[in-house]
Specification:
binds zinc ion, Aminopeptidase, 8 strands, 2 domains, alpha/beta, single chain, eight-stranded mixed beta sheet
């Protein structure tokens, strides 16, 4: 099958394709329903899990899609292509593969990055009982990121204020304050929540169940929106030790580290990489976010702000509402054959390298 055909036009089609391919290739499939939310057409939403290989295998590879909802077009297409092209056929007895489809099914189905509670899941994996998140200065710019009116003079002033903030605080400061993760404005952007979300709880329980018996576990989470068009930046994340281990197994690749300032991503808190690592104190863990570029950073940030504005102040059923929905989808999913083949080639290379490394 052409690689392009593994990608789907909506969440339901993506889910159907993924499940059908996994079942045809001998994966065991489980569905977890998110009963807190529905798709736009009122249908149910699921986080699906497909597993191949022995439950007591020494090595585990786990691939996640749709942590940021709308970014699931990318991750789902890659997962389906890897399964459909039999990349996981003929595995050794000591290796187990677990694919998690649509970590945030609400966001995927509604073309949003956030979940049903406006939470950015990749800021939500905090230990809320013991960790106090740091304040990146988000409060200074919240009102400008999400002005009450998206068009006209209010918006012009808001953009001017953000430009001034960037000028006053130096390069990277605006991105860090906006996207580093904030826990003070539940109606704002890049909000990390105040408790673990349904998706984070489901992922952590699953990770414990499947990865605890393993000695080594490698996690790859597919994202879109940062960096050059179609390029998959390998971002190592988690504790210093996990980042160092990840650098070591991918020593032949250019791997970046937000904390060292080498990534297109700002340093962020409450990532899935941190959550997974904390859940598995006795496992040697590795974590990479494979981040694929789409449009410019400015266009992507504007789409994130517009989406937040739309659900807070706007109307989905209006010309502006429909325009924003299209803008958000375009910012996280380039519906072009060339982009999709770039995504797959990179993912295939990284996955094959991971499989070799785990079986060394
Ligand atoms: Zn993302």
């Amino acid at each position: 099958m052409d690689i392009e055909n593994y990608f789907s036009a909506n969440y339901q089609a993506a889910r159907g394709k993924f499940l059908q391919l996994c079942e045809a290739r001998g994966f065991t499939v489980d569905a977890y329903q998110n009963d807190r939310a529905k798709a736009p057409d009122g249908s149910d939403l699921f986080l699906d899990v497909a597993m191949l290989g022995s439950a007591d295998a020494e090595h585990l590879l786990m691939l996640f899609s749709g942590t940021h909802g709308v970014e699931g077009y990318c991750g789902s297409g890659i997962q389906s292509a890897l399964v459909g092209e039999s990349v996981f056929g003929g595995l050794g007895p000591n290796l187990r593969i677990v694919l998690v489809h649509a970590v945030n099914p609400y966001g995927f189905a509604h073309d949003r990055r956030v979940n049903e509670d406006n939470i950015d899941l990749n800021r939500n994996f905090l230990d809320f009982a013991h960790e106090v998140p740091s304040d990146n200065g988000y409060g200074d710019i919240h009102a400008h990121l999400v002005p009450e009116a998206w068009e006209g003079e209010t918006r012009v002033q808001a953009d001017a204020a953000l430009a001034q903030y960037a000028k006053d605080n130096g390069p990277g400061a605006l991105q860090h304050a906006a996207s580093g993760g904030q826990y003070t404005h539940s109606n704002g952007v890049f909000y990390g929540g105040e408790t673990l979300s349904w998706s984070a709880e489901t992922v952590l329980a699953l990770v414990k169940e499947v990865a605890e018996p393993a000695r080594r576990a490698c996690f790859i989470d597919f994202h879109t929106g940062l960096g050059p068009y179609g390029y998959g930046e390998m971002i190592a994340a988690g504790s210093r030790a996990q980042v160092d281990r990840t650098f070591e197994i991918y020593r032949d690749y250019e791997v970046t580290d937000p904390d060292a300032g080498t990534s297109t991503s700002a340093p962020i808190q409450g990532t899935m990489a941190h959550g997974v690592e904390r859940a598995l104190p006795d496992v040697e863990t590795y974590f990479v976010a494979l981040e694929y570029g789409t449009l410019s950073l400015k266009e992507v940030m504007t789409a994130v702000r517009a989406d937040n504005w739309l659900y807070q102040f706007g109307s989905l059923d209006s010309p502006l509402g429909r325009d924003i929905k299209r803008q958000v989808r375009d910012a996280f999913y380039c519906d072009e054959a060339k982009w999709k083949s770039m995504l797959y080639e990179r993912a295939l290379d990284v996955v094959n390298s991971t499989l070799r490394e785990l079986q060394r």
